[in-house]
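Hi V.,

You were right to ask for the full record rather than a summary. Here it is.
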Amino acid sequence: MTKSIDFYFDFISPYSYLAYQKLKTLNKDNFFKIIYKPILLGGLHNLGGITAPAFNVRKMKNMKDDCRLIADKNKIQFQWNKNFPINSLYLMRGYLVIDENLKKKFFEVCFDYYWKENIDISDKENVIKILDICSINKINFFKDIENNKIKDELKKITNHAFEKDIFGAPTFVVNNKIFWGQDRLEYALDEYSS
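Predicted structure:
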């Protein structure tokens, strides 16, 4: 069996964005095999009875400052999105419906639009722009994200994450070991290399 790193993410997670940016630098030679696992972070929080930082004023202030600190330290272009939090449901389903060869571009554009460009990626017009940039068929995309099979698949991935004791994003799983948070990325890479 080929070793890989499962990267559980949601586009609304600033820490997932920061981890993705760090991973781009650390994996520029594609040494690490990454499997991206879209989850619905709100659904995962609901399953675990967790109140997201977005709904706690003190945590929210700390999270904004913390993300800026991490971005500056790692020279990552980042700005807090004025529309945070948004409903990422359609984009997370969208990641599941698009062709495999377009997933990387879609992943990057969604993250960059939201956390680098400060664009509301829950707005349909902006989703259409993302699809155009990625050369994704809009008619098929909007039809497919309403397919019950896709709805169930996103729920299934989110439920499996919960069953593995994953409670936030990003989370990395290597050799059945869980590494939670962007600050644990290097530990996950070490596990992969061991």
